[in-house]
Specification:
80 residues
């Protein structure tokens, strides 16, 4: 049974965390190159957030947004 849990530990530490280990090694060689990955992620997040806000404004301008209290099914289940 011990080998089973050690196998799970190996899988998570050595296999699934391999990209993060590679990024840590890259940071030792070049701080700028390693942080470019972070900057790309932030840039993608900003673009996605801008697109989401743009879509929300389109739905609100068309009057398609449901602003009632029971707009979501989980809000009105126990309120009878």
């Amino acid at each position: 049974m011990k080998e089973f849990f050690e196998g799970i530990g190996y899988f998570f530490e050595e296999i699934l965390m391999m990209p993060f280990s590679a990024l840590a090694e890259l940071e030792r060689e070049s701080w700028w190159l390693a942080n470019t990955v972070s900057w790309l992620c932030i840039l993608i997040l900003i673009v996605a957030l801008g697109y989401w806000i743009k879509q929300l404004r389109i739905f609100e301008a068309n009057g398609e947004e449901d602003k009632s209290q029971t707009a979501h099914s989980f809000l009105g289940k126990n309120q009878q």
